[in-house]
Amino acid sequence: MNKIRWTVIGAGGIADRRAIPALLEDDQNEIVAVMDRVESEAQRVAEKFGVPAYFTDAEEMLAAVPCDAVYIGTPVACHYEQAMTALKYGVHTFIEKPIAMTEAEGRRLLEAFQAAGKQLMIGYMMGYHNLHKKARELVQTGGLGTLNLVRMQFSCWYPEIAGAWRQKKSLGGGGCFMDLAVHCLDLFTTITGDSIADCCSYVANRTFSYETEDSAMLMFRSKQGVLGTIAVNFNIPDACAASKLEIYGTDGSLVAEGTMGQEERGSMRYVYSPQGSYEAQQSRTTAEPQVWQGGGENIYLKQFKDFNSLLTGGRPNYDNVEKSLAIQAICDRVYQNV
Ligand SMILES: NC(=O)c1ccc[n+]([C@@H]2O[C@H](COP(=O)([O-])OP(=O)(O)OC[C@H]3O[C@@H](n4cnc5c(N)ncnc54)[C@H](O)[C@@H]3O)[C@@H](O)[C@H]2O)c1
Q1: Is the model's pLDDT at 279 over the cut of 90?
Q2: Whole-angstrom distance, CA of residue 144 vs CA of residue 138
Q3: pTM for this predicted structure
Q4: Of the residues 12, 138, 146, 173, which has the maximum number of CB atoms within 10 A of its CB?
Q5: What does the pLDDT look like over 40-61, one tens digit per residue?
Q6: How far away, in angstroms, is 144 Cα from ligand 1 center?
Q7: What is the pLDDT of residues 70-117, one digit of tens each?
Q8: Is 9 a pocket residue for ligand 1 (Cβ < 6 Å)?
């Protein structure tokens, strides 16, 4: 089979650290050109990965170098326009999360890609983590009974950094909610197959003076009636940070720690303990948990393999984009009164 010829828009950051190495780990892919608006970055990344051409203009690259797929790893404010440029050249497109600045902008992308019959996918890679897949399997086969509570917490330390796009509303669309909570929302839907029906939220700037929020909290009710919370912070030191996902049902619970991140790490505890009668003593003797560890595989590699299978499958599939739009609708709600 012919290789999939990729070009990259936005070569620094996550592209350099995770996406390009993952693409090149699969010999189904080749990268034929990279583009970054900073020439030295484009050149550095091209040399680092042996990519034959580099550019500082996306349209110039796409006009000059034929390709099958474009990877976009730029600030959120660039996603819409760059994906539309890719579509103009008739190429399938993979955009890093979140899809765009708003649901409406993302929906225009979906409609344009659907009309052209080209594949679009958004980089929500955490669903490919082996423990999140295990969680999905357990939840969806009734291993926790009826779900009643979901709690997620995800944070990092992100102080003021000159020029940081996540700290400017016009470039990132928002702060820690747009950056971190979107992963939690993706995992909620991926694991439970459910989605958010209603929510309320707080955002705050407690620690830093940048324009976007450094703290956010969402309380929600899902379509199936599950209640939950998502707490995300840019102002908790990395050494104290929690990446925690908890799901409780009538028959069991799952608690995953350290699984939300860029590596297939962490662990997950599963307790299955259906209880018929009320225990007045409340002695809470705990059932022995089953514990699983992260598999150590490359979740970005798995994500791109999935994208490639959509390209070779013949018909585009937009389920991941629909899910990304539902996530963006929640972001819109959180920011509507800010
Ligand atoms: N899935 C993940 O694990 C993950 C992790 C981090 C970031 N992201 C997402 O990836 C995207 C990029 O984030 P990042 O952390 O790599 O940012 P970054 O700032 O580290 O890197 C962005 C790169 O894009 C370049 N750039 C900026 N504007 C550009 C433009 N108009 N045209 C071309 N290049 C431009 C910058 O020079 C830089 O090299 C965002 O959507 C972010 O949310 C995803």
Answers
A1: no
A2: 7
A3: 0.97
A4: 173
A5: 999 999 999 999 999 999 999 9
A6: 38
A7: 999 999 999 999 999 999 999 999 999 999 999 999 999 999 999 999
A8: yes
Residues whose CB falls within 8 Å of the CB of residue 302, separated by 6 or more in sequence, listed in order: 125, 128
Judge if the beta carbon of residue 125 lies within 6 A of ligand 1: yes
Q: Is there an atom of ligand 1 within 6 Å of 78 CB? A: yes
Q: Which residue has the tokens 């959180």?
A: 334
| DSSP labels, 119-162 | -EEEE--GGGSHHHHHHHHHHHTTTT-SEEEEEEEEE-B----T
Q: Give mean pLDDT, residues 141-158.
A: 98
Q: Does domain 130-293 have CATH number 3.30.360.10?
A: yes
Band (1; pLDDT cuts 50, 70, 90): low
For the CA of 76, the closest atom of ligand 1 is 41
Question: Cα(256) to centroid of ligand 1, in Å?
Answer: 28
Question: Where along the chain do its domains lie?
Answer: 4-125, 130-293
- 4-125 falls under which CATH superfamily? NAD(P)-binding Rossmann-like Domain (3.40.50.720)
Which of 74, 78, 97 most suits a substitution to test ligand 1, by most atoms within 8 Å of the C-beta? 74
Cβ of 73 less than 6 Å from ligand 1? yes
